[in-house]
Design goal:
Elements (H helix, E strand, L loop, with lengths): L1 H24 L3 E6 L7 H16 L3 E6 L2 H10 L6 E2 L2 E2 L3 H25 L4 E5 L6 E11 L10 E15 L2 H8 L3 E5 L1 E3 L5 E3 L2 H11 L4 E6 L14 E2 L4 H6 L7 H13 L4 E6 L5 H7 L6 E3 L1
Parallel strand pairs: 1-2, 1-11, 2-8, 5-8, 11-13, 12-14
Antiparallel strand pairs: 3-4, 6-7, 9-10, 13-14
Length: 300
């Protein structure tokens, strides 16, 4: 009996310690990019749903943008469709775009919404095409052929098909859902001027939405602890002014570059703070939100 009382007191103390953070972030918008291992591990998926429900319950407005690259690749394999890649990006023709939209909007999005609702929350699934939420245009990439005089070599325009970039966010539908206590869950599919669908990097969509809403926080869930220094040690706080230097000297490299760029753009648009967090850790969102130490890298 004494042991049970002590455990109950410890749980109560955890709640009391979290109270100042709950008060600080009440009525604030938190944008979460949901991806990586947290989206495929059954236990972590449930913990994520419960975390988001708790945020909503204490008066915080979470908005979720999810990825789905591995799930898209699985269906492409089953359909015997071989995608091609340019500079690490999947070329998305009309056939592949149909698969992308089918997986992101029709499968992954509905699974996330269903799990949140099953755990007691109120979630609504959207794509960027709903209410013209995410307006987009074709992403145009260019590269110069290697030569002795790069300034005189022609620029090669790379056509990635229906891969897009965000041009505008129309947040009306999100504001309506939040005001009615719904949790928006968004698939990163945008809409062009002619109604054409575009596949957009989920990090970029999350950053654009966070910026448009002047969110209190943008949290990117990843499969790494955060941004590491040259010795492999986690950098817990990182001023955005230091990012260029870290990229130039190779400390930030590979897939981490677009993530820190996303954070930098979001800060420039008015987001208060951004975070790169290890989604493999149980309750990583709550640990980042409601504890002084946090669990990832804060970029401010």
């Amino acid at each position: 009996m004494v042991k049970n009382v002590k455990e109950s007191i410890q749980k109560a103390e955890v709640l009391i310690d979290s109270l100042p953070y709950m008060q600080k972030f009440r009525h604030k918008t938190i944008v979460i990019k949901y991806g990586g291992h947290a989206m495929v591990d059954e236990h972590l998926k449930r913990q994520f749903a419960l975390d988001v429900i708790l945020l909503k319950q204490v008066g915080i407005n979470p908005i979720i943008i999810h990825g789905g690259g591995p799930q898209i690749n699985q269906l492409l394999d089953r359909l015997d469709i071989q995608p091609s890649y340019v500079q690490g990006m999947r070329v998305t023709d009309g056939e592949i775009m149909d698969v992308v939209e089918m997986v992101l909007v029709g499968k992954v999005n509905k699974e996330i919404v269903g799990l949140i609702n099953h755990c007691g929350g109120k979630a609504v699934g959207l794509s960027g095409r709903d209410g013209d939420l995410v307006c987009a245009r074709k992403l145009r990439m260019s590269s110069k052929n290697k030569g002795e005089k790069l300034e005189k070599t022609p620029t090669e325009i790379i056509d990635l098909g229906q891969v897009g970039e965000v041009t505008q966010i129309n947040p009306g539908v999100l504001e309506s859902l939040s005001q009615n206590d719904f949790i928006p869950v968004i698939a990163p599919v945008g809409v062009g001027d002619n109604g054409q669908a575009f596949n957009i990097n989920a990090d970029l969509v999350a950053g654009a939405i966070a910026g448009k809403l002047s969110a209190e926080k943008l949290i990117l869930l990843t499969d790494v602890p955060g941004v590491n220094d040259k010795n492999g040690q986690l950098i817990t706080t990182l001023p955005h002014q230091d990012l260029e230097g870290l990229i130039d000297d190779g400390t930030v490299a590979g897939g981490m570059i677009p993530k820190v760029r996303c954070c930098e753009d979001a800060l420039r648009q008015g987001v208060a703070k951004t975070y790169i967090v290890d989604g493999r850790i149980e309750h990583s969102i709550l640990l980042e939100m409601f504890t002084p130490e946090g669990v990832g890298t804060e970029i401010f």
